[in-house]
Write a structure and sequence with these properties.
Layout lengths: L2 H24 L3 H5 L6 H17 L4 H8 L3 H14 L3 H16 L3 H5 L1
Helix pairs in contact: 1-3, 1-4, 3-5, 3-6, 4-5
InterPro entries: DnaA_C (IPR013159), Trp_repressor/repl_initiator (IPR010921)
Protein name: Chromosomal replication initiator DnaA
GO molecular function, one term: sequence-specific DNA binding
């Protein structure tokens, strides 16, 4: 496996973790978030949150975030902008802070195996 392949696999794993966290927080199925189509508004919001968390908590570029979700960079950028705009709501902002802290504290697979 090349270094780039390993990086992409790690990015997908991080996106999967963010997707699961968003699915739990919003009460939707993680498979719905991963679906190629928009689905319900609640699922679309959870997907946008997952992209935002992947970008912010794991410090991935928008391009790498998009690739990890099977989307294009403009979709990831749009998701992040939408979520940033919603952070004016104190309850929503607190939820995102909690999710971000949770993801930042998750061990990396290399450390978890040790």
């Amino acid at each position: 496996m090349t270094r780039e392949d390993a990086r992409d696999a790690m990015d997908r794993a991080r996106a999967r973790l963010a997707r699961e966290a968003a699915a739990y927080a919003f009460g939707v199925d993680a498979a719905e978030i991963a679906a190629p189509t928009r689905r319900s508004a609640r699922t679309a919001l959870a997907r946008q949150v997952a992209m935002y968390l992947t970008h912010v908590a794991f410090e991935l570029s928008l391009s790498r975030t998009a690739l990890a979700f099977g989307r294009d960079r403009t979709t990831a950028a749009y998701a992040c902008h939408r979520i940033e705009d919603r952070r004016d709501d104190a309850a929503f902002d607190a939820l995102l802070d909690d999710l971000e802290a949770c993801l930042r504290s998750a061990p990396t697979p290399d450390r978890a195996a040790a």
